[in-house]
Design brief:
heme; Cyt_P450_CS; single chain; alpha+beta; Cytochrome_P450_monoxygenase; four-stranded mixed sheet; 49% helix
Length: 461
């Protein structure tokens, strides 16, 4: 069988977006794009954004700047992050699921949450959670069966198992895994990337609209989390709680105030831990396995590393090829395709005036394939991560976990999880492409429109 191209082509936009001077046409394009966003964020955007340093979109409802210039990315995320807080419009769509979690808060509230959360993800803790990653990986390999499968549900089950073991010291039961996966999948389908409240400058006192299905799926997920948090708080009070991530976070006081998370706050935080540690990890692993299925030379290298891997945490350092493949998968298919910030005052962005309240979009989906910053940006080439590979400027355009103070605190955890699972699955099975190449679409994360099909055959070595 002839393997497919290394990855699906970039989505073809339905129509080009006119340049800024055509103001009336530009407004119409933004409104058409907004309708496209509700169907799929990626295919609604113009192909020229893979070359542009910046694009400005204006309408009567919203004024946005998509910034690919590395200097602007650094300005927003690292040099002056306080002047570009998370957009309140982002909160509108995610509130039913994430509440007031660290992912959507800003300012003093965000800083307090990070002071409590960050110690749980310090370097030394990675060694402590590695047994959870290893056990979930071995369980995932044992569940896989030969033949053509959609790898996304399997990756979701495996990632959910990791996060439950690491957070709550609980191996995920099949019934719970099915409920959680179904609820998250349903929430992805029900939740548009652009909620109507994100397009309309509504006053804060006006009730926000979310579909009944969005509210139901979010409520189901949060109910499961609420039960787990309540049980753990009871175990902590009784002195019988295990020393896992949930216990660490629940018992860590804010060093500035001495206050801990209460039960409601902890539900919000676990919701984002689950989203970040489950949906994003499942997305990255699925695409990495599919990329290996069409690239047999790299697959053999990863399989050899996986076969030699043991349950010793120190052995992870030897997964060089596996790490390069996983990093390249994160480049081509960043789980979170876009990040949205908001101006707090008038700013000048590449000579354009951005008024207070303008939306500043940083798009890993475009940065990671930008043709001015990457050699062969659409090619699957893990070797580019060698010290001499790729353009030097490309490293500033790589943001799978964001950057600066708001970088994902679990980035190290996610990299170890993804690399270990990738290596162990490749060691157990030969991977080949399925009947149809997947088409990437943006839901809560980058997923395959009709799944991600690969074939598994046991390795007889």
């Amino acid at each position: 069988m002839i393997p497919p191209a290394p990855f699906p082509p970039k989505p073809v936009p339905p129509a080009p977006v006119p340049p800024k001077p055509a103001a009336r046409e530009a407004r119409g394009s933004v409104l058409r794009l907004a309708g496209g966003f509700r169907r799929d964020l990626l295919s609604a955007l113009p192909a020229r954004l893979f070359h542009a340093w910046m694009a400005e979109f204006r309408s009567p409802l919203i004024h946005s700047f998509l910034c690919n210039d590395p200097a602007l990315v650094r300005l927003v995320l690292q040099d002056r992050p306080g002047d570009f807080p998370k957009s309140n419009r982002l909160r509108e769509g995610l509130a039913p699921l994430l509440g007031n979690s660290v992912f959507v808060t800003n300012g003093a509230e965000w800083a307090r949450q990070r002071r409590i959360i960050d110690p749980a993800f310090e370097g030394g803790r990675l060694r402590e959670v590695f047994p959870a990653i290893w056990a979930a990986t071995e369980a995932a390999v044992a569940r896989l069966r030969p033949g053509q499968i959609d790898i996304e549900p399997e990756a979701s089950h495996a990632a959910a198992d990791v996060i439950f073991r690491a957070l709550f010291s609980l191996p995920i039961e099949h019934r719970i895994a099915a409920r959680v996966f179904a609820a998250f999948r349903a929430h992805q389908d029900a939740q548009p990337i652009v909620n109507p409240a994100a397009l309309l400058p509504l006053p804060r006192w006006l009730p926000r609209w979310h579909s009944r299905r969005t509210r139901q799926t979010a409520a189901e997920i949060r109910a499961l989390i609420r039960d787990l948090v309540a049980r753990r708080l009871a175990d902590i009070a009784a002195g019988t709680a295990p020393d896992d991530l949930a216990s660490k976070i629940m018992t860590t006081p804010d060093p500035a105030t001495g206050r801990r998370f209460d039960q409601a706050e902890m539900v919000d935080q676990v919701a984002i831990f689950f989203l970040a540690g489950h949906e994003t990890s499942a997305s990255a692993l699925s695409w990495a396995l599919w990329l290996l299925a069409g690239n047999l030379d790299w697959q053999d290298r990863v399989a050899a590393e996986g076969a030699a891997l043991t349950a010793d945490f120190g052995a992870v350092a030897g997964l060089r090829a596996s790490r390069a493949v996983f990093r390249e998968a994160l480049r081509l298919y960043p789980p979170v395709p876009m990040m949205v910030r908001e101006t707090t005052r008038s700013e000048t962005l590449r000579g354009r005036c951005a008024p207070p309240g303008a939306q500043v979009i940083l798009s890993p989906w475009h940065l990671h394939r930008h043709d001015r910053m990457w050699d062969r940006p659409d090619a699957f080439d893990p070797a580019r991560w060698d010290s001499a590979g790729g353009k030097a400027s490309a490293r500033a355009a790589y943001l799978p976990f964001s950057a600066g103070p708001r970088a994902c605190p679990g980035a190290g955890f996610a990299m170890i999880e993804g690399v270990v699972m990738l290596a162990r699955i490749a060691a157990a099975f030969r991977l080949s492409p399925g009947d149809a190449a997947p088409v990437p679409v943006a839901r809560l994360t980058i997923r395959g429109r009709d799944g991600i099909l690969i074939r598994l055959a046991p390795r007889m070595e």
